[in-house]
């Protein structure tokens, strides 16, 4: 029996862990409800999440509470937490609350977000984890599976559990099948830890790539091993628009240009050459990798949110209705400040800037700071955080000032607002003096060595793997915790020495010799003519703020030290 694996190929074992009916699980645990009781979480009279017991009665997500109760009279309908004025009814412990949409309050997902963070923290202590959403995470089980391999090879129970009810059985003679079975055994223990310590159930898909693990995940409370030799059959059963990244404009473009392509596997039959011709080299290669099942994406370790945001949709109001806009911004600021304080305590960082965004009805912007009539998804303005974002009233007032300054009198309306924190900085050494003291000493002028280029490798060629069918569940609506990353600017290379030798002046006995002061060197010092050519502004690499004062050693927005060469 083959028991060794080729480290040069380094096959991966990735698990997609999906919390089943997440909002309902949290509410049932909070209220002590039975697992057999039909339950659906509502938001302003509409069902946001429905458990599998209620689905047996025909109850579906998006139904009104009254309509759902006609199908299932015993349906329990707790309301999501609500923040804002005059919303005491939403905090009622009654599980049959049914109210119309109340414009005085805002739904909050903090309860569900905090519970999932606790689960992800527990799992991240066991294996590398990437948070995908409020109820999903990818876990890299490769190293744990390799450590489990020898034990699993002699454990018939592990092979029986991995086989389950699938059409294809794991092959003990196949090295990678054995590694998948080992990963399945590890994943089963991780799910058991979450159930025992926190009381929540989750489903899992286990495969060589993140995409296959996602597509092969069955629900509820199931675990599926996706074998290589069944990948074509799995992809042939998946609609092309069901693949991550193909549910929007790109998916529509694929359907328009390739009307015969129905499933993900159909993309591979088109061929890489034709896909490149139709969609460009990069997108064409990506589409072919999706269809062939070779799309390999690394598990990006970390579940720290890159940004924080709070938003609210409401009845359209004039952009000059400062009372209504101020009320909503106050509610959003209250929520965001609370999350900021928890974020600082958990991750040891503080916010460096805020951002206010707004949308006109139907997603069209009909006014802007310049008065131009444009149709866009929205408009936003960045601003410095007053008091470091610790005071909700000051935060709301600053956001309202930015909004008021951008509005054109009587030119449009607003139906959606969002407050967000896009950038952070570590709490340690946040002052300019601390940063300057912590900065490394300048090295002698010398050519900067070039960084080695990372070797790239394509994903393994598909052989096969997989599951007979897919379990699917509509993802719950959630607030976005994703944002852009910030990177530090590279230190500029010293200017090359001039190729033209300096002009010599005829020696004269009467001319005094100019001496260089001790301890001072002119090597690398730019000429005065070159200094005039330098830009008069510099961009902060941390918060991207455009500083217009070259005398400042730190960013006016976030106090980040100005990089050398700017």
UniProtKB/TrEMBL annotation:
Residues 14-247 form the UmuC domain. The keyword Magnesium applies. Its main location: nucleus. Residues 494-504 have a biased composition (Pro residues). Signal peptide: none annotated. Coiled coil: none annotated. This is DNA polymerase eta. PROSITE patterns: UMUC. Keywords: DNA damage, DNA repair, Magnesium, Metal-binding, Nucleotidyltransferase, Nucleus, Transferase. GO terms for cellular component: nucleus; replication fork; site of double-strand break. One of its GO terms (molecular function) is damaged DNA binding.
């Amino acid at each position: 029996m083959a028991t060794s694996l080729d480290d040069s190929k380094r096959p991966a074992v990735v698990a997609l862990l999906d919390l089943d009916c997440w909002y309902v699980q949290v509410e049932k645990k909070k209220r002590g409800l039975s697992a057999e009781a039909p339950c659906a979480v509502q938001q302003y009279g509409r069902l946001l999440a429905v458990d599998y017991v209620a689905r047996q009665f025909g109850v579906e997500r998006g139904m009104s509470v009254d309509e759902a109760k006609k199908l299932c009279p015993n349906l329990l309908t707790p309301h999501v937490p609500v923040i804002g004025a005059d919303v005491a009814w939403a905090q009622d412990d009654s599980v049959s609350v049914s109210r119309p949409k109340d414009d005085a309050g805002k739904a909050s997902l903090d309860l569900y977000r905090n519970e999932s963070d606790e689960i992800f923290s527990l799992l991240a202590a066991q294996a590398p984890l990437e948070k995908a959403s409020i109820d999903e995470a990818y876990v890299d089980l490769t190293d744990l599976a390799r450590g489990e391999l020898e034990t699993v090879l002699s454990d018939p129970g592990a092979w029986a559990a991995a086989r389950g009810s699938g059409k294809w059985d794991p092959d003990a003679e196949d090295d990678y099948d054995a590694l998948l079975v080992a990963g399945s055994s590890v994943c089963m223990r991780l799910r058991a830890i979450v159930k025992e310590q926190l009381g929540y159930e989750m489903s899992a898909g286990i495969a060589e790539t993140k995409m296959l693990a996602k597509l092969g995940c069955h629900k509820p409370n199931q675990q599926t091993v996706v074998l290589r030799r069944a990948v074509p059959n799995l992809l042939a059963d998946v609609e092309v628009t069901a693949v991550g990244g193909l549910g929007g404009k790109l998916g529509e473009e694929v359907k328009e240009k390739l009307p015969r392509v129905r499933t993900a596997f159909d993309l591979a039959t088109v061929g890489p050459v034709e896909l490149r011709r139709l969609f460009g080299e990069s997108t064409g290669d990506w589409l072919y990798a999706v269809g062939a099942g070779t799309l390999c994406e690394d598990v990006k370790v970390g579940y720290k949110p890159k940004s924080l945001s709070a938003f609210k949709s409401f009845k359209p109001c004039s952009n000059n209705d400062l009372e209504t806009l101020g009320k909503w911004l106050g509610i959003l600021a209250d929520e965001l400040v609370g999350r900021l304080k928890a974020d600082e305590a958990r991750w040891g960082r503080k916010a460096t800037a805020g951002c206010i965004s707004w949308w006109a009805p139907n997603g069209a912007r009909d006014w802007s700071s310049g008065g131009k009539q444009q149709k866009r998804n929205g408009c936003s303005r960045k601003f410095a955080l007053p008091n470091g974002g610790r005071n909700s009233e000051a935060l709301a007032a600053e956001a309202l000032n930015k909004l008021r300054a951008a509005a054109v009198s009587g030119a449009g309306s607003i139906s959606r607002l969002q407050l967000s924190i896009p950038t952070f900085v570590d709490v340690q050494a946040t002052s300019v003096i601390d940063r300057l003291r912590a900065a490394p000493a300048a090295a002698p002028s010398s050519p900067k060595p070039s960084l080695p280029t990372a070797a790239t490798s394509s994903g393994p060629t598909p052989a096969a793997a997989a599951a007979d069918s897919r379990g699917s569940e509509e993802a719950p609506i959630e607030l976005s915790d994703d944002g852009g990353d910030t990177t530090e600017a590279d230190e500029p290379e010293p200017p090359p020495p001039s190729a033209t030798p300096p002009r010599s002046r005829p020696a004269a006995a009467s001319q005094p010799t100019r001496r260089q002061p001790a301890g001072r060197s002119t090597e690398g010092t730019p000429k005065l003519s070159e200094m005039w050519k330098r830009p008069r502004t510099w961009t902060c690499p941390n918060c991207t703020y455009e500083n217009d004062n070259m005398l400042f050693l730190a960013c006016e927005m976030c106090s980040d030290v100005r990089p050398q060469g700017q």
